[in-house]
Design a protein that fits this description.
330 residues; alpha/beta; Quinone Oxidoreductase, Chain A, domain 1; Rossmann fold; six-stranded parallel sheet; 9 helices; 27% strand; binds NADPH dihydro-nicotinamide-adenine-dinucleotide phosphate; oxidoreductase activity, acting on the CH-CH group of donors, NAD or NADP as acceptor; oxidoreductase; GroES-like_sf
Length: 330
């Protein structure tokens, strides 16, 4: 079967050369194992961190070994009593077209309830990140102003909609006019700013948020976050979810240091990892699924066709190629 391995560790922005395609054998099944065929592979910004050496909250990928990520797969053969041919499962699995995995590492999904790919986005990790980050850290109250960076992506587009469900005023920041249009027309954001064409983001935020910013859901960091913090309200909450603008930085950028603003305005800033909430995932999935069913929550997927496009799709995350969740259909 075909597999994709980490060929080398990137310095700065990764390229296709950091990946290599190889052929490998699919081993025969032992008791308790299942033979799987990948259906949908998730590509996620956090995987950039795993391409580096050194410890983080997930261990680094190993050079010469397959990349791994969240996958929706179909069972083709099983020696596990818990799975049968045709079952759809979700797990963290290697970037291989076909693979063998232990039954206990797999979670069955019900694709009669929702399309299988939803379990990588709205009913999966990115939906839960939006849900817990906004509600637990942001604690939105009706009438408050919420700003979301990376607003047109998998996490951001859900954050904005949940903020609307909670009766907040929502401003999204994203990187193209098509994304701005989508935020307003499809997701119901009140305002949206294109940070790539707007030369005064700080001023644009001030204009869009006359009562200042009560909650900032930060997916990107860097100068965009500096511009939001310059408009922060007293007793605001900042949910520090991602810092994608810094993931490929080769030097630590020196920002305008706005901590005095956070201090004098009594702002609370908290970083989080969605895994912190794993014991509450069932609650989150149930609520997200309900909102989807009720038509209160909609979303977008960018589905790239072909296993061989995995590296390109992953790299595309750092160039804003995706609207909503970036997924590869194997
Ligand atoms: P997205 O779907 O948002 O995809 C990434 C998007 O980031 C791109 O489409 C692009 O949109 C934007 N982007 C890329 N480079 C830059 C840059 N230099 N400056 C500003 N924006 C940039 O990804 P996810 O929704 O999966 O993840 C969003 C963030 O949340 C990431 O930072 C990720 O690491 C983080 N995350 C954190 C989790 C946690 O547990 N804390 C869990 C999941 C995600 P544009 O066109 O607008 O530039």
């Amino acid at each position: 079967t075909q597999e994709i391995v980490l060929a080398s560790r990137p310095k700065g922005m990764p390229t296709k050369n950091n990946f290599e395609f190889r052929e490998s054998d699919v081993p025969s099944l032992k008791d308790g194992e299942v033979h799987l065929k990948g259906l949908y592979h998730s590509v996620d910004p956090y995987m950039r961190g795993r391409m580096n050496e050194g410890k983080s909250y997930v261990p680094p990928f190993k050079v010469g070994e397959p990349i791994e990520g969240a996958v929706i797969a179909e069972v083709v053969d099983s020696k596990s009593p818990n799975f049968k041919e045709g079952d759809k499962v979700q797990a963290r699995l290697p970037w291989k077209k076909e693979m063998v995995a232990k039954g206990e590492h797999l979670q069955k999904i019900d694709d009669s309830m929702a399309p299988a790919s939803y379990y990588l986005s709205i009913l999966g990790m990115t939906g839960l990140t939006a849900y817990f980050g906004l509600l637990d850290i942001g604690k939105p109250k009706p009438g408050e102003t919420v700003v979301v960076s990376g607003a047109a992506g998998a996490v951001g587009s859900v954050v904005g909609q949940i903020a609307k469900i909670k009766d907040c005023r929502v401003l999204g920041i994203a990187g193209s006019d098509a994304k701005i249009k989508m935020l307003k027309e499809k997701f119901g954001f009140d305002e949206a700013i294109n940070y790539k064409t707007n030369e005064d983001i700080k001023g644009a935020i001030a204009e869009a948020c006359p009562d200042k910013v009560d909650i900032y859901f930060d997916n990107v960091g860097g100068p965009i976050s500096d511009a939001v913090v310059a408009n922060i309200n007293f007793h605001a909450r900042i949910a520090l979810c991602g810092q994608i603008s810094l993931y490929n930085a080769t030097e630590t950028p020196k920002g305008p240091r706005l901590q005095p603003m956070l201090l004098t305005r009594s702002v609370l800033m908290q970083g989080f990892i969605v895994g912190n909430y794993s014991d509450r995932f069932p609650e989150g999935i149930k609520q997200l699924a309900e909102w989807v069913k009720e038509g209160k929550l909609t979303f977008e997927e960018t589905i790239v066709d072909g296993f061989d496009k995995l590296p390109e799709a992953f790299l595309g995350l750092f160039h804003g190629d995706n609207k909503g969740k970036m997924v590869v259909k194997a």
